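Section 4.2 – Deliverable D4.2 (structural model, holo form)

The reporting period included a commitment to supply a predicted holo structure for the target in complex with fructose -6-phosphate. Inputs used:
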Amino acid sequence: MRVIIERDADAVSLRAARIVADQIRRKPSSVLGLATGGTPLGTYRELVRMRQEEGLSFSRVTTFNLDEYVGLSPSHPQSYRYFMQRNLFDHLDIDPMRTHVPDGLAADYESYCRQYEQRIEDAGGIDLQLLGVGRDGHIAFNEPGSSLGSRTRLKTLTSETLGDNARFFAGQEQVPRLAVTMGVGTILESRRCLLLAVGESKAEAVRATVEGPVTSQVTASALQLHREVLVLLDEPAAGRLQRREYYQEVERAQTLLETGQLRALGIGTTLDGGSHGDGSRTGGSHNGDGASSTHRGD
Ligand code: F6R
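Output (structure tokens):
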């Protein structure tokens, strides 16, 4: 896991948008996994700005959303399809046929969920999965106790999640009790994951995700098993991390690597003070989003 701590929520959004944009520039036909909720809103705003002002093109991008409430139609203002249209898709040059949000009105969920998984596979798998985290440590709607191998399916929401999401509805009774959600196993198959968390209310979930044991009680902790996860936090969300100074040290080393300042890291020098080689970039290759092949903080 690579943990990056930014000064505030805006800086998190800008960095996340840059990572998504780099992914699309590197591979215009990228398959993105997308999340809803308050956390990714700033990232989506920045991506829309990049589309409008910098010409970033989504014309060949395919997207799969993590989840949808059961019982809400795509035109319901609280449905996740509606959220995605209003906050992102309507402002991009994306092909509507390539945007997938689970159907909250499917007649047969078992076969629908199988189809959703199949569509992800047919699209070539998810290149970059954007994630938020619930206060109870959920990713997508994989509530505590969800199997860490789970696939897309129906899930009953916890009272904590119902309470958290009541702010978007007329009251907690209005929040649907069930959601259709990608499973933890589905998410772990993405090639890269980018988990965002902002605000003090997420600090405990972040601590458990990054530094706690891998447990189905905190489904985000399963990301510790993934080989390429970037956790992007603001200061308050990072507030309970025990090893935050070490994570910041890793980032400083990463910056030196990316800017070719290898001698500052002791690369190309010997312990007796001598040096060998010309200090050229042998320490790792920059892959466009701050990850090097040999040093990624993971
Ligand atoms: C939404 C989703 C959820 C949210 C999480 C955090 O598609 O999958 O896991 O990411 O509940 O929600 P916010 O960002 O509103 O705090």
